Amino acid sequence: MPGGTRSTDRGEETGNRLLPDPGKMCCVTVRVFLLDDHELVREGIRTLLESDADIEVVGEAATADQALTRIPLAKPDVAILDVRLEEGNGIEVCRDLRSEMPGMACLMLTSFADDEALYSSVMAGAAGFVLKQIRARDLIDDVKKVAGGASLMDPRAVARVVERISNPPAEDPVLSSLSPQERRVLDLIAEGKTNKQIAESMILAEHTVKNYITGLLRKLNMASRTEAAIYATRLKAERGSTTPD
After folding, report:
1. pLDDT tens-digit profile of 158-205?
2. How many Cα atoms sit within 13 Å of 190 on the Cβ side?
3. Is pTM beyond 0.85 here?
4. What count of Cα atoms within 13 Å lies in the side-chain half-sphere of residue 149?
5. 95 near 64, Cβ under 8 Å?
6. For position 137, which CATH number holds?
7. Cβ contacts of residue 84 below 8 Å, gap of 6+?
8. Residues of the domain holding 40
9. How many domains does the chain have?
């Protein structure tokens, strides 16, 4: 009969629309990619995740460059990214790939809590930030949650990030041309940090720090990082002298 309902071996068909048979529906497999520079860690996480029938590890990488090449090909639902790597870092991978793969969730994995890393992870669009000390069952649950679209970021941490963006501290007008990252690099230069130390502090690749320094020197019309350090130190001293007791 037109518009009627008839039974098929694939389910129930109403009009021209096929409805799935609940008794024959199977679970959706969550596809996961792993980025960590320690093979033993990757092997342990892979074994743990694949102990769950609903999870499949579809690829691995030991460096940021490998991840940037392999993840688009693997098309995972979730990428578990180590924050700090010997070559690059997971936050940059998250930032770069989220723009072209918005449907992929990034779960940042780190050995210790770090406000700067958390801030950078939120800004990069990560869905979660978890410590490597996490319990095995909790990691499996977290992977499934972010695959389903949930955010595991602490609302209080996200609120701090929003506050930091909305209400930046007052700065000298000369600095207005600098981006937030360039300003942070300038502050660390003033503290006497090397490029490597700045990269570790900001969770960036060393070559990225060099690019930031080149850019901020050009914007400030300065010839060397020493000149920039003196300038930034003077600004800090001036701000300190005008701070009420």
Report:
1. 777 667 666 655 555 667 778 888 888 988 988 888 898 899 888 888
2. 15
3. no
4. 0
5. no
6. 3.40.50.2300
7. 90, 110, 111, 200, 203
8. 30-162
9. 2
